[in-house]
Amino acid sequence: MDNVITQTQTPKSLRSDLALTDLIRMLAEFARERNWQSPQPQKPSISSGITFFSLEYCFYLYVGEVGELSEIFQWRGEVPTGLSDWSADEKEHLEEKLSDVLLYLVRLADVCNVNLGEAALEKLRKNASKYPVDATKRVMVVR
Hints:
Elements: H1 2-6, H2 12-15, H3 20-33, H4 55-73, H5 88-111, H6 116-130, H7 133-136
Helix pairs in contact: 3-5, 4-5
Keywords: Cytoplasm, Hydrolase, Magnesium, Metal-binding
GO molecular function, one term: magnesium ion binding
Subcellular location: Cytoplasm, Cytosol
């Protein structure tokens, strides 16, 4: 898997519009190659803490990355769509943090046996029902 991930010339099919199922498979293999997969659950005990492979630890890693992402925007005020006033380095840093958040979210969902794609589609269906266009459409006022 590392050879596919680290190739300088990544195949076009992996550069854009990457399927969620491909990302899940790649992350699982990445973890498996490093022996980072979650072990079987154990009964908690006084001496047992959070292990590196636990779902809880995976969740905390995800939350930590979300925190790092929020720091990027924390003191910027209003940020223009497209980040037109950001430097290339600032945009690259944002890309890395967004990727970290995505990767941890996808891995957490996979470890929890949640089909993230199906869950997201179902949530969109629920939101469409909860917020129908006619009842919730707002007109943009530009001053």
